[in-house]
Amino acid sequence: MNSVFYYDSILGKLRIADNGKAVTQIVLDSLNYPIAKDCIEQESPLIKTAMQELNEYFDGKRKDFDFPIDPQGTEFQKRDWAELRKIPYGETRTYKQIAEAIGCPKGFRAVGLANHKNPIIIVIPCHRVIGANGA
Asked: Model confidence at 135, in pLDDT bands (50, 70, 90)?
């Protein structure tokens, strides 16, 4: 069963969804990302765990996440997102470095687009990717 629940956080209102086995979405609700049509609004145990770990992260008590995720996207997006998860806490990578790491050395713009479509913010740390000029 697909579940969705909403929380107020230091980032704003978060929407967390799961498919009964893994978290499929953590997004800012204000961004209006699409959501599965068959979702029931309920705080499943998995969603509750995800929010608890996010709060620990926000409080500086956690650097990694333990709950399962299942981001939905193209194969390229999934390769990008998997590479982002390898960036250690407190470190950054450039779009070019990510593109090279996933075997698409000239695909830094595509990496940027994939990062923009990230369905599981914070856990898939697109915020750790910067431009070559450091911006």
From this structure: confident
Give the tens place of pLDDT for each residue, 79-88.
999 999 999 9
Q: Give the full edge-to-edge strand order of the sheet including 40-41.
A: 23-28, 12-18, 3-9, 40-41
Cα–Cα distance, 24 to 126 (Å, whole number): 16
CB-hemisphere CA count at 13 Å for 112?
A: 10
- Exactly one of 99, 114, 126, 129 is catalytic; name it: 126
Q: Does the annotation mark 39 as catalytic?
A: no
Residue 36, φ and ψ in degrees, nearest 5? -55, 140
DSSP per-residue codes, 39-68: -EE---HHHHHHHHHHHHHHTTS-SS--S-
Q: Is 80 helix (H, G, I), strand (E, B) or coil?
A: helix
Written as one letter, the residue type at 45 is P
How far, in Å, CA of 49 to CA of 66, rounded?
9
> What is the 8-class DSSP label of residue 38?
T
Distance (Å) of CA 102 to CA 28, 82, 94, 113, 123: 27, 9, 13, 14, 19
Can you read off the two tokens belonging to residue 46? 């998995």
- pTM, to two decimals: 0.91
